[in-house]
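writing this on my phone so excuse typos. first protein, seq and then structure
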Amino acid sequence: MGWPFHSTPEHIAVRTWVKQHSGSWTERDAKKFAQWLEAAPEHRIVYNKVVAACECAKQVQMEPPQQTWSVRPSLFSHWRTVGVALIVCAVFIPGWKRFNDWWNGTPVTWTAQSNAPRTVTLTDGTRIELDAGTQVITQWGARARHATLVHGEALFSVSHNSVRPLTVDVGRGHLTDLGTVFDVEALAHSVRVSVLEGSVGVRTRHGEAILTAGHGGGYEGTGELLPITRVDSSVTSWREGVRRFDATALTDVLDMLSRRHGVQLTIADDAAARLRLSGTLRMDDLPLSLRTLGTALQLEVRWIDEHHVELSSRGGD
């Protein structure tokens, strides 16, 4: 029983029901079906709805054609099963799509363009502030509230709902709002989470942690949890176009600038790649930022073209 990777749960459920009633159902099919049911709670819900719809559709009278030649019962039985499935596809799946949009929410993509932060307010009052160059996908439904930080940084001010806690996917980890205001940043090799109010649950395949107000943490790109540290309101100073760094790797600093301005920033040598920055940097003025970095870290800054800048240590490696 093969399922195309793009098949929806509804299509898989209908195809499964058809094969179960076709006489070609095997133990291998049964094993694969059981794994699919266990993969997500909604799979069983969808399948049960398909079964119920099929049972109703079977009540439709489908008599064999009255021809002068004989029709094998098994052949008619097969086409009767297919006919039931077609009825379900025509009636159930469009209705399920509308139900699913209401239950789980329709995905909505929010994008902040280069050097243009933006704020979005969702239907329940939750506010998401997106730094420049950031993209977030939200799904607000009757069952749950979910967001995915695709790239960039966002400050979530969540309208708390214990029945529908907000979950956020970022890279290889998951965050759960426990009534909070928190900042999330997806860097090239890590995800950083800073909690200003309330608390946030952090979970990856390597472990779990609870971050409370005034603390930060996150995880590496591999999913390994980062140490919990103290943070303050300066973590959101990006909203005013500035950032404070504390021994931050130059690669991460350039990643933030590149995202904000839509310019490729590369490091030319290993000596520069090992540098770290401490201090405050103006982020909304790229030429000023690069001049500041050049002075503070003794870097040569070379504009290759208007979309590409190369930085190297003075004197090379």
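second protein below, same order as before
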Amino acid sequence: MSNLMLGIVLGLWNGVSMVLNLSGIGVRTTLITGVIAGACVGDINMGFQIGATCLLMSIGFYTYGGATIPDYITGTLFGTVIAAKSGDYSTGLTVAVALALLMTQMDILGRASTTVFQHLGDAALAQNNIKKFEAVTLAGVLPWALSRMIPVVLGMLLLDQIQVLTDFATKVTWIQNGLSVVGGLLPAVGFALLLSYMDLTKYWPFLILGFVLYAYAGMGTIALALVGLAAGGLMMGVGGAK
């Protein structure tokens, strides 16, 4: 697939999925996006790896109160494409983290642009023009979609230049080390935030059990999730368990 087609396909996905998320259809995730990007470049496994890692980095981050957070979905798109073309997972992840942070600026621009449609909607209501109000309200999703779509289209068209910048970033030791530290820190912060929501004073045995199964028994995430599901079922008395 050419860079232009990659830009169109992945740009449309990034923009449309953003609108779907605003509608309550949560398909804009790093895993789904990674698989789609991987399919476009012929390496679904790489897309899944980049998407899974970006998912861990994004755990605990949410736009509480309208806060701007790194856009790991867009980062996953670029990271998957770069990793597949270069054959280097680490290079792709470096791009994913860097662009996820850079996309915070586009998020701010997209959010700020929606105020134009809000004022137009207020003016339409003042004139009791309901049809115009509805049209303007629906058009208010455009900044959200375009702020995710345009960077992907332009980025894919300039993919060769992005590769040059990535090569530079990976060759400069302090940049590479800094991104590695950030990449390792963000998942830890995400897990720490999740743990802060748990009532560990009451459920601390489950925390210890999960740690032992992971650290000493070598169980993977899916296996641990199934154990947690079974434990939760026992606690809730599902299937007649007491």
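Residues 198-242 form one domain. thats all i got for now
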